[in-house]
Design goal:
The structure holds 2 protein chains of 2 kinds.
Chain A: E1 2-14, H1 18-30, H2 34-37, E2 43-55, E3 59-63, H3 70-78, E4 85-90, E5 94-97, H4 110-120, H5 125-139, H6 154-167, E6 172-176, H7 186-199, E7 203-207, H8 211-217, E8 220-225, E9 228-233, H9 235-259, E10 275-277, E11 282-290, E12 299-300, E13 306-318, E14 322-329, E15 334-339, E16 350-360, E17 368-377, E18 383-395
Parallel strand pairs in A: 3-7, 3-8, 5-6, 6-7, 12-18
Antiparallel strand pairs in A: 1-2, 1-4, 8-9, 10-18, 11-13, 13-16, 14-15, 14-17, 17-18
Helix pairs in contact in A: 4-5, 4-6, 5-6
Chain B: H1 2-10, H2 15-29, H3 39-59, H4 70-100, H5 102-107, H6 114-144, H7 158-182, H8 185-199, H9 210-214, H10 216-224, H11 226-240, H12 246-270, H13 274-277
Helix pairs in contact in B: 2-6, 3-4, 3-6, 4-6, 4-7, 4-8, 4-11, 6-7, 7-11, 7-12, 11-12
Chain lengths: 426, 278
């Protein structure tokens, strides 16, 4: 049996401009076509013929970029927004965690807000009294429950909101990116509660940008793009499709930016990241980043390798030359740097055109944007042509590790340390 | 049509929520003030003092209806200003309430139609808190001022007048709250309209004032104003100790019911646009 059925649902939003609104008011007054004038001409399609059937007991994830229609989908399922076309059916009591603590009144105490919020979510007063202790304990607000809610921090606010919503004990739970505000100790608690829901075979619709969590807790995932379901199925596969799409988009962005690098006209501004200097006895004519297979590429995973392809040209015969590269992260920290001199290559001569390739077998960097220095200079450091941060690439991975470099590693635990391996898909 | 009836009755099933929201409004209103709930009494009292000084002692109208006595005139004013405050603050709050509570409408599955009900009800309770002050003033004046009208059994009709006003205010509240979502201009129009409406209602002057009685235009104009009859209901039962103008009040009640239906229809029609517009 399906707990949630969304059948060819479209949702169209109206786009008003200030001028339009004024015209509406005028035409409403003058022509008397009041209801007709409320129909705007400019429309935004947030959901476009979406069909989803979610069986009872399933944890269903929805991923996608901002503005892809995820939240609208959730609102339509929650009944907050009405579909423009199509039908939505939800079986059982629904609780929507769209904005936690929506409807809290800042002036009155947490205690009173728990009651009113609970009633809003469909609990009776007696049920709330019975669950009150649980709600407060889960939110860790025992000391502050009688203080006005306006004195709460945003974390306390969110904890109380989550705690009330989760205690409504719904059959269908809708979650929209609400865990983003929680601190390091509260989020796992929330995830535990969600796990608990899963065990009790409740239906969960989970919208999130946190792909690792989606992959961990969802049975099935839909990827939405521009209001349509682009892929639907097994979590890892769907997430990979999504990530591939994101990588393609970033790649396109990077190559566009790359084309804009005009080697002849680097503005010499103070404090600029990019710069070029040197007399160019040996000139770097072109630098290209490629995959190990030779395709131009700008978005890499840490496991991938990279080739920095450098085209050089020496006007005259030069005998003293060193090639160097340096990789910097976005904070300007040098992640790695080397040159042919440090590695004790022995230059003999260069004249005319030439090619130098710097091959990295495995990047092993953490998530982020990196900038590249490429240079050719004398052994004493006098530059022929120094390109400072003129090239950039992106490392994009699902690992959340931090630092500069992703060191190859492995964990090991003695039997007395009870530690479960990461959940499926890791 | 039966649909509206069902929907309006459906409000009943939210009574616990309405009750809680009203008590929250009342609790929150004076939270943080030193005098707290006393403000519900002090506000109308101060207003009365101002009106008495300005209209009673400075302008000092010579009207036989008040026995040429400014104290009696002040009591007459009080009878009208108190319920008018209920109506005007209900209307102004209604015009804002959907925007103020926009979060509820956008983020929670929340029956928006209870918001105007909460506004009118919480202002009604404020009004009710002022009524004992009114009656105490009336009693004091009846004792100490010679030839002042005393209490009469017609006071028992007071709740009926309140009912008529409640229905009318609620209908107006539904209409105003839903329309303001689309036409924010209404907020500004409303505050001016209410000032005009206040003076177009026999509150600071009695219906028997000579200029009104001499002009059939003024009389007809005032009689077309539903608030006229509601205010006369209050003035008759409390100030004069007379029978309510039950025919006119009855018609006003029907007008109020019609306004409630129309207001609710408009509200219901616009409801789906609230989540994206507020």
């Amino acid at each position: 049996m399906n707990a949630i059925e969304v059948v060819s649902v479209s949702r169209v939003y109206q786009k008003y401009s200030a001028r339009h609104r004024f015209q509406t008011f005028k035409s409403a007054l003058l022509k008397g076509d009041f209801f007709k004038s409320l129909r705007a001409e400019e429309l935004v399609t947030a959901l476009d013929d979406v069909t989803l059937r979610i069986p009872a007991g399933m944890t269903f994830g929805v991923i996608g970029e901002n503005g892809s229609g995820k939240s609208t989908l959730l609102k339509v399922v929650a009944g907050i927004a009405k579909p423009s076309r199509g039908a939505v059916a939800v079986r059982g009591k629904v609780a929507a965690l769209i904005e936690l603590g929506a409807g809290f009144h800042p002036e009155i105490s947490g205690r009173e807000n728990v009651f009113i919020n609970g009633i809003m979510l469909g609990l009776s007063k007696r049920e709330i009294s019975r669950k009150f202790e649980d709600i407060v304990r889960f939110a860790e607000l025992e000391e502050f429950i009688d203080a006005p809610v306006k004195t709460y921090s945003s974390g306390m606010y969110m904890r109380l909101g989550f705690s009330i919503a989760i205690n409504v004990n719904p059959d269908v739970l809708l979650i929209d990116e609400v865990l983003a505000v929680g601190d390091a100790s509260f989020v796992p608690k929330c995830l535990d509660r969600i796990d608990d829901f899963r065990r009790r075979k409740k239906t969960i619709l989970f919208v999130s940008h946190d792909l690792a969590t989606v992959e961990k807790i969802c049975d099935k995932v839909a990827w939405m793009k521009s209001g349509r379901v682009r892929a639907l199925g097994e979590p890892k596969r769907t997430i990979d499709l999504y990530l591939q799409d994101v990588a393609d988009k970033k790649e396109a962005e990077f190559s566009r930016r790359r084309e804009e690098v005009d080697l002849e006209h680097i503005p010499a501004e103070e404090g600029r990241r990019e710069a070029r200097w040197g007399k160019r006895e040996v000139e770097i004519r072109r630098v290209a980043l490629r995959s190990l297979r030779g395709e131009p590429k700008h978005v890499f995973s840490p496991e991938e390798g990279m080739v920095i392809d450098i085209e050089v040209h020496a006007r005259e015969r030069v005998k003293d030359f060193v090639f160097g590269v340096g990789i910097f992260n976005s904070q300007g920290v040098s992640c790695y740097g080397t040159n042919t001199h440090l590695e004790e290559f022995r230059p003999r001569a260069i004249e005319g055109r030439g090619r130098v390739a710097f091959r990295i077998d495995r990047l092993g960097l953490v998530n982020g944007t990196y900038y590249l220095d490429v240079a050719v200079h004398r052994a004493d450091g006098t530059p022929y042509d120094y390109h400072r941060n003129l090239y950039s690439f992106l490392v994009s991975s699902r690992h959340k590790d931090v630092g500069i470099s992703r060191l190859p590693h492995r964990w090991r635990f003695s039997p007395s340390v009870k530690m479960l391996p990461p959940r499926k898909g890791r | 049509m039966p649909n509206i009836g069902r929907n309006l009755v459906g409000l009943f099933k939210y009574r616990v929520l309405i009750q809680n929201l009203v008590s929250r409004e009342l609790k929150a209103r004076y939270r943080g003030t030193v005098l707290g709930f006393l403000w519900s009494f002090i506000n109308p009292l101060l207003l009365m003092v101002i009106y008495t000084i300005v209209f009673g002692f400075i302008i000092n109208p010579r009207d036989p209806a008040f026995d040429n006595n400014p104290i009696l005139y002040a009591l007459f004013l009080f009878c009208g200003v108190l319920p008018w405050t209920w109506f005007s603050s209900s209307s102004i709050e209604s015009s804002n309430i959907l925007m103020i509570q926009g979060n509820l409408i956008k983020k929670v599955l929340f029956p928006a139609e209870i918001l105007p009900v909460v506004v009118v009800t919480s202002n009604f309770i404020h009004f009710l808190l002022g009524v004992p002050i009114l009656l105490a003033a009336k009693a004091l004046i009846a004792v100490f001022v010679p030839r002042a009208p005393g209490f009469s059994p017609y006071l028992a009709f007071l709740p009926l007048v309140m009912l008529v006003q409640f229905v009318f205010s609620l209908g107006f509240g539904f209409l105003i709250s839903s329309l303001t979502v689309h036409f924010r201009d209404i907020r500004d129009i409303l505050s001016n309209l209410l000032t005009f409406w206040f003076f177009a209602t026999p509150i600071i002057y009695p219906m028997t004032f000579h200029t009104i009685q001499e002009s059939s235009f003024f009389r007809a104009f005032l009689n077309l104003n539903p608030m006229t009859h509601i205010m006369q209901g209050y003035q008759n039962t409390v100030f004069y100790g007379r029978m309510i103008p039950w025919k006119r009040l009855g018609v006003t009640f029907l007008v109020g019911c019609a306004l409630l239906v129309v207001g609710y229809l408009v509200f219901d029609r616009l409801r789906d646009s609230f989540p994206e517009e507020v």
